Please model this.
Amino acid sequence: MQKRSAAWFLAVTFFAYMAHAGCAGTGVQAGSPGSAARGERHYGYVMSQVSNAIVVIDTSTNEVVRRVKHADMVKPAGGRFHPSLKRYYAGGSGKITIWDTTDLSHPTYLRTVIPAAGSTGEYRGFLIHRGSRTAIDGTVWMASIQDSKVYVYRAADLERAATPTPAKVFDAAGAGISVPHFIMSRPGTSEIWLTNRPVNGKGFLMRFDGDAHTVITTPTARLETASTVGDEPNELSFSSDGRLAYVGHHGHVITGSPANQMNVAIVDATRFTLKKLYPMIATATTPGYVDIDPASGRVYFATKWSPNLVVFDIKTEQVLRYIDLGGFGPGYGVALTPDKNRLYIPLGVPAQSAVAVVDAKTLTVVANIVDSELIGPRAVRFTSY
Model:
């Protein structure tokens, strides 16, 4: 496939946005003062891996309003807000940084946590279990993708000045973890689901009892998704009732997989069994990133190579639209704003370093965000995530 340039991508997204603006009768460009009226104000935290930064975007204007760094935050690729909205836990290589987000537009470094001294493992997946909106409580789960471990801390312990001790550590030997990546709670239950993506093996899902800190083994401890070597189940989202899970796959020959992965897995979450594999078209390779809007009946997948935004209908289990984001890739995520009005898709190096913004109603690209610190964006996190 011919590699398209960053200039080509910018031209395409600018044209798409101007066409949309013309139809709407506004002509307002993203980032101008008048664009604030186009949507509610939310703050998206972009984990910029190459520039070692958190880049804060104001979604009402799509302007970058803050860029924050710290020497302990190296190659950040994942993170999560506490439900109290007063803390953000940022991943990275070897260390976790905790940020005070009392002012969401201005995260302030608070402290560093080192779960495994001397480790250079990358902390990618995060989850807060039983956290409330009124206190910094519950437990914080962190997955180390290189070390094949999941650390569980009490949020209150992470607030202390002394080095906190994990309440639980799951590893390969005791729990069967293998290259853990993404963690998500199943609605209406105490279940915590984890994707495992070994490059030289078949990827699988695992479940934990978040209250008891144990592996759930009934009917089975692990569930293969695509059952192919190097499929790398990556991200997942649940239906609002928790009955179905939608799982994307990340494996690609460029990153070491024996074959390109093209399937989305639909899992019966109650039975913990595979319901269906749904293939993407040939030009939408590795649909690894997932977000869901149950109210509109849609699941959104971002494909990594030849990046597309895939709009999937929950009821019919059919793709409604493929939206070509331009360039060869890679696409590194998809995140809905809390009001479900827009989607933010980070596009990484080498093809481009930007965040594409798609209107969820019209399914058109409405902005393309670039910045001097937006190099290698790997995730966009909102408070609703």
Observations:
- The helical segments are 6-24, 155-158, 172-175.
- Confidence is low (pLDDT under 50) at residues 1-37.
- The longest helix spans residues 6-24.
- The first strand starts at residue 43 and ends at 48.
